[in-house]
Design brief:
Elements (H helix, E strand, L loop, with lengths): L1 E5 L3 H11 L5 E6 L2 H10 L3 E4 L4 H10 L4 E4 L6 H14 L2 E5 L12 E4 L2 H21 L11 E5 L5 H5 L7 E5 L3 H9 L7 E3 L6 H10 L2 E7 L7 H10 L4 E4 L11 E3 L2 H12 L1
Parallel strand pairs: 1-2, 1-4, 2-3, 4-5, 5-12, 6-11, 7-8, 7-10, 8-9, 10-11
């Protein structure tokens, strides 16, 4: 079976590995970055396209490569990519399957601020940071770190620009994947090397706490990207330290209403076993 997997996440890597475990399957993977493409290829994809694709180009590739199934394993926040995938699969007349990380319930806490966009998040972060600065001045704190609050950005390199529009880059600390693309994006936004944490993975609550303390974080910005994205450990770490957390909730994709959606990789792979029986 010829399968197109829209990749770029750890979940997608697992899906590609599971699909290519069968010699009957051939996987073409699409990603938006070269780094994502390398992960897809190492997972077993026989062909990788490392750039964003519009609907027309997707339809063309599906036709040229005789794709039979499109698996959309893009990030929960890649709403436009999901909309394009659904439209392309309908035009091409092939099966569409969506993998989406299960949502997690956020703790009920006064330190958590839920917002619906990164623009709104940047405004909320600025508001919280300014209040923190005012409180520090009122108390005449001796610790200079309390008078220069750091914003810890844990929501992916592609969203940092929303913060730098409102806040000086020297006050932003960002954790990004260790790729040339990510580092270049940070430098383009005039961030300094000492404020860039280049590391890959889902980290424990304790490790996140160490980073937040080390960088004197006064506000944490993250997004609701599920267990796989490490959202719970980021939030729990901040709450234990008494640090406010601004959480961007997932965008809704109405087009998914009548589509087949899986929240478990193994269940998705079983769908292909049933089709091959």
């Amino acid at each position: 079976m010829r399968i197109m997997v829209m990749a770029g996440t750890r979940d997608a890597v697992r899906i590609i590995e599971g699909l290519t475990a069968s010699e009957d399957n051939e996987v073409l993977a699409t990603t938006t970055t070269r780094y994502g493409g390398e992960l897809a290829r190492s997972a077993g994809a026989s062909h990788v396209i490392s750039r964003g694709l519009g609907v027309d180009e997707m339809v063309q590739i599906i036709s040229q490569k005789n794709i039979e199934v499109l698996v959309d394993a893009t990030h929960p926040f890649a709403a436009e990519a999901t909309k394009n995938a659904i439209e392309a699969s309908k035009i091409a007349g092939i099966k569409y399957i969506r993998f989406e990380r299960p949502q997690i319930p956020l703790p009920e806490d006064d330190l958590i601020y839920e917002v619906r966009s990164f623009e709104e998040a940047a405004s909320k972060v600025k508001e919280i940071a300014e209040k923190t600065l005012e409180k520090g001045a009122e108390k005449d704190l001796k610790d200079k770190n309390n008078l220069n609050p750091k914003i810890m950005h844990l929501a992916g390199v592609s969203t940092i620009h929303h913060l730098t529009k409102l806040i000086s880059p020297e006050n932003i600390v960002a954790r990004v994947v260790p790729s040339i693309y990510s580092l270049n994006k940070c430098f383009e936004l005039e961030m300094t090397g000492e404020n860039i944490m280049a590391m890959q993975g889902t980290f424990s609550k304790d490790f996140n706490k160490v980073l937040m303390e080390e960088y004197h974080a006064s506000v944490v910005l993250t997004k609701e990207s599920g267990e796989t994205g490490g959202t719970p450990s980021k939030i729990d770490a901040a709450l234990e330290l008494g640090i406010p957390v601004v959480v961007v909730t997932r965008p809704e994709v109405p087009e998914l209403k009548n589509e087949k959606v899986f929240g478990d990789v193994n269940q998705l792979l079983m769908e292909f076993h049933r089709d091959s029986d």
